[in-house]
Design brief:
The chain contains 12 helices and 7 strands. By secondary structure, the chain is an alpha+beta fold. The strands form 2 sheets. A 5-stranded mixed barrel has the order 1-2-3-5-4. A hairpin with a 6-residue loop joins β6 and β7. α6 packs across α10. The longest helix is centred in the middle third of the chain and has 20 residues.
Length: 278
């Protein structure tokens, strides 16, 4: 049963158009007691009463007024109260610390041509990369999230490479970890005032996915194995992989990059509220 004392965590928020041409907000909330999900609708007149910051992922809110369905898992919200504002993401000193770690991993690439290529990509897009999220919802969805996720992947690789170094090219592994999600700097937008994340207009029409972007830039630069690892890092075609790991006779490093990426995505801090608790 709904109570105005219940506190919910903002999971995701988006604004779309109704058939009548008005705006409609879709808000997904998570109960902080039992983790159940509540799907909410806000009509345009309600949206106009709120500062967009209230819908930031990780915020804690209280529903003041709403009408619910019989199962209390869907509702039409007419009034919300902010209980606790979530952190936008990494602080500038944290961004600098992670950026230093990232550049240290770039320097581990000994092949001169590959090192120059990877270093040049990050130098050219440094400011974008430092603030971008790694996802809209699933993982590391805050300012600096992509930077954290990329460093985590490199750290996981560093821990595992001693077991495989004689069988795989270490330079290519680090390059794939660094560049596998690079296309996300073009795939997403993040409002640095509100922390709200959205898909960049036109990206999917041009590149389809960030994996395709990473694959293309590496192939064009002549780094075919790095490109193939990026193409496979989502594991399955229905998860967005260009190379499906269910195929036979694939190179073992393709599986390594997939599992490294998956570990970071599954265990990395999901949003800024969890980031604050770290």
């Amino acid at each position: 049963m709904f109570s105005t004392e219940d506190v919910y965590e903002v999971v995701i928020f988006s604004i779309g158009d109704t058939k009548a041409g008005t705006k409609m907000g879709k808000l997904q909330l998570k109960d902080t007691v039992d983790d159940s999900i509540l799907n909410c609708i806000l009509w345009e007149e309600t949206l106009n009463r709120f500062d967009a910051k209230i819908f930031r992922t990780g915020n804690l809110v209280r529903i003041v007024s709403a009408s619910f369905n019989e199962k209390y898992n869907n509702c039409l919200v007419s009034a919300l109260e902010l209980v606790k504002e979530a952190k936008l993401g990494l602080e500038p000193n944290e961004i600098n610390r992670y950026w230093t770690k990232l550049t240290e991993y770039i320097e581990k690439i000994k092949d001169e041509k590959l090192h120059t290529f990877v270093k040049g990509m990050f130098e050219q897009h440094e400011q974008q990369f430092k603030i971008m999220p790694a996802a809209k919802l699933m993982h590391h969805n805050y300012i600096g999230g992509l930077l954290v996720h990329t460093v985590e992947c490199c750290e996981f690789a560093e821990l595992n490479l001693p077991h495989f170094a004689s069988k795989i090219n270490t330079d290519e592994i680090y390059a794939a970890c660094l560049l596998h999600d690079f296309g996300k700097i073009l795939e997403y937008t993040i409002d640095q005032e509100t922390g709200l994340i959205d898909y960049a207009p036109g990206f999917k029409e041009t590149w389809i996915t960030h994996s395709q972007y990473g694959f293309c830039i590496c192939m064009n630069a002549g780094f075919q194995m790095v490109a193939k690892m990026i193409a496979a890092h989502h594991g399955r075609s229905d998860w967005g992989a260009i190379v499906d790991l269910d195929q036979k006779d694939l190179e073992p490093q393709l599986y390594l990059i997939h599992f490294i990426d998956n570990l970071s995505a599954k265990f990395g801090k999901i949003n800024t509220r969890l980031l604050e608790e770290n």
